[in-house]
Amino acid sequence: MHRALSFWVVGGDLRQVKLAQLLQEDGHTVQTYGMEHRPDPGALPGSDTMKGMEQADCVVLPLPVTVENGILNAPLSDLRIPVEELLGGLQAGQLVCAGRVTPAMRVLAERRHLILRDYFEREELAVANAVPTAEGAIQIAMEELPTTLFGLRVLVIGFGRLGKVLAHRLHGLGAQVTVSARNYGDLAWIEAYGYRAEHTGQLTGWLSAYDLIINTVPARVLDLPQLLDLKEDCLVIDLASKPGGVNFKAAAQLGTKVIWALSLPGKAAPVTSGQIIRDTVYHILQELEV
Predict the structure, then answer these.
(1) Rg of the chain (C-alpha set)
(2) The model's pTM
(3) Residue 46 · residue 10 · CB < 8 Å
(4) Rounded CA gap, 147 and 144, in Å?
(5) What is the pLDDT of residues 61-112, one digit of tens each?
């Protein structure tokens, strides 16, 4: 950034803590709210109220922005902060950046004439987040499996941003990587990269060979027929957002080990994730010429 700005970083987990630290290190004025139980609370200024937030150049909210019933996602706080109340205290024309914004929040922001930007929808964040997500998934696999990844027969379901990074990392560790996709162009690229290719819609009957299956597709791709195919000791890691890509009830009944690994960037690499959010917020500010 070319000039110092005023930021309020509100709610969130260690990613938002790191974000606030980075903004402060960059010379900006930073105030935090809704994270009083953060590590080393004296390292950042913290407010007991939302007074003064209406003067900020940018208010940064967490990823995801809410938990249930419109309450701000604030695991480092004892406060229950309604997003409606938070937005209600801001001024028309004020910039709010948040992750995974709900339709209800968009309506609230429009009524208040706020400039709302969802940084989770940004391509640069999605691509950058694929790296800590892939590394977090590999860490889980290495902790849960009794074998090395070298020589392991692995199926990655999906060849989007995350599937590409994950297949590349696994291949580099010596795993025998197969990737499934529905798009025939993607299947051609999978083979061009040197992986085995399978069609995601035609996996039934072909899953018994794998030691590890990692799903990246946010749709039900491993239902009862597919789960029945799995070998007894196959580990399944589901990286898909809610409602996930696995029939978890059927998996439990079959005794299939499934780990639903949500929000891995924040858990596996909160420092890197904070940097990614900061960079994305800067891009938004530059586009808006703030």
Answers:
(1) 21
(2) 0.85
(3) no
(4) 9
(5) 999 999 988 999 999 999 999 999 999 999 999 999 999 999 999 999 999 9
